[in-house]
Inverse folding.
């Protein structure tokens, strides 16, 4: 089990970006450091990385990254240094979830892709909207699931249900 926190954070004063970009190691790649850009780089939205105003849509981006990782087992964005990780978040798109996990519903892939939109105006505008869409997906999966043993689709439905619970809390 992993405990992940992707809440908004603010900082006081300028962050020493050059220092923050050069100090990444594999074991420290997901840890926030004091006095630097505040947050966990792996889950930061483009606007946070660019020093722009953060709002609820910033958390929706982070939620999309967490959901992507829950379903695929891989982070949405990666890099060998903080600089390359930031570049990936700002400029690249992660591989579609259905490419990595072919049994994943295409609708879940679309939800996550919208969460990960680079422009906050193109993301879901509230966690409530994401929750409603995830609940629709979960309902469709439940209606089509066989009564036998838990299939891969049922496991994905369980993951979606967990995501809905997280979204509701957010």
């Amino acid at each position: 089990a992993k405990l992940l926190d992707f809440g908004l954070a603010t900082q006081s004063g300028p962050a020493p970006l050059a220092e923050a970009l050069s100090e990444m190691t594999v074991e420290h790649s997901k840890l926030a450091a004091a006095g630097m850009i505040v947050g966990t780089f792996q889950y930061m939205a483009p606007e946070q990385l660019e020093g722009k105003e953060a709002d609820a849509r910033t958390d929706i981006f982070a939620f999309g990254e967490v959901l992507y990782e829950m379903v695929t087992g891989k982070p949405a964005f990666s890099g060998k240094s903080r600089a390359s990780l930031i570049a990936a978040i700002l400029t690249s798109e992660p591989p579609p979830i259905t490419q990595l996990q072919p049994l994943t519903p295409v609708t879940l892939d679309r939800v996550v892709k919208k969460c990960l939109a680079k422009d906050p105006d193109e993301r879901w505008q509230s966690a409530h909207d994401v929750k409603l869409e995830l609940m629709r997906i979960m309902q469709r999966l439940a209606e089509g699931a066989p009564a036998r043993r838990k299939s891969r689709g049922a496991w994905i439905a369980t993951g979606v249900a967990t995501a809905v619970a997280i979204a509701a809390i957010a």
Summary: The chain is about 50% helix and 0% strand. The mean pLDDT is 79. Residues 139 and 157 are 9 Å apart (CA to CA). Helices lie at 17-22, 46-49, 56-72, 82-91, 97-100, 106-115, 127-144, 152-169.
